[in-house]
């Protein structure tokens, strides 16, 4: 079985209080990093942001509000249309606030992507090598990134 899952979706970036415009989101999953989903947002060929998300939190966000830090998810329904609202808080701005983005995804498409990741590594079956993790942390600290 292929240890990778990839899906490209068109999502809606909310600009201001109500205006939305389309952004392309590349979702990817790698069995070697079983707890995470990576999403890269782009528009007109430019990468806007890259986030590494907790797979379980993403799944939970389809059902209920989750997150209190830099990433928050919650379901939003408008009639028959079910969306996942994703809020991302970034670096500080010069005015003292933080960069903030709100993106809406069609919930059934996100669910379908997550089902495919569950076919690769079922929830609760995730494993990682502590030795590899520690080696990565030590190497990062030695490079001055820690």
Give a brief description.
This protein is of the alpha+beta class and 146 residues long. It is 23% helix and 48% strand.
Helix content: 10-25%
Mind describing the biggest β-sheet?
7 strands, antiparallel
Give the C-alpha Rg. 17 Å
Number of helices: 3
Walkthrough of the structure:
The protein has 146 residues and is of the alpha+beta class. It has helices at residues 55-61, 107-120, 130-142, and strands at 4-15, 19-30, 36-43, 46-54, 71-78, 81-92, 98-106. Strands 4-3-2-1-7-6-5 form a seven-stranded antiparallel sheet, sandwiched between helices. A hairpin with a 5-residue loop joins β6 and β7 (98-106). It is globular and about 45 Å long. The termini are far apart. The model has no long low-confidence stretch (mean pLDDT 87).
């Amino acid at each position: 079985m292929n240890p990778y899952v990839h899906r490209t979706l068109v999502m809606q970036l909310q600009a201001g209080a109500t205006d939305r415009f389309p952004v392309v989101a590349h979702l990817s999953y790698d069995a070697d990093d079983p707890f995470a989903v990576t999403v890269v947002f782009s528009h007109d060929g430019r990468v806007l942001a890259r986030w590494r998300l907790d797979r379980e939190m993403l799944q939970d966000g389809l059902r209920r509000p989750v997150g209190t830090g830099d990433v928050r998810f919650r379901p939003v329904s408008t009639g028959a249309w079910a969306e996942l609202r994703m809020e991302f808080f970034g670096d500080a701005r010069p005015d003292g606030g933080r960069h903030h983005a709100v993106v809406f995804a069609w919930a059934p498409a996100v669910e379908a992507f997550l089902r495919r990741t569950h076919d690769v590594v079922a929830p609760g079956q995730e494993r990682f090598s502590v030795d590899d993790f520690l080696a990565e942390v030590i190497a990062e600290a030695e490079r001055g990134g820690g």
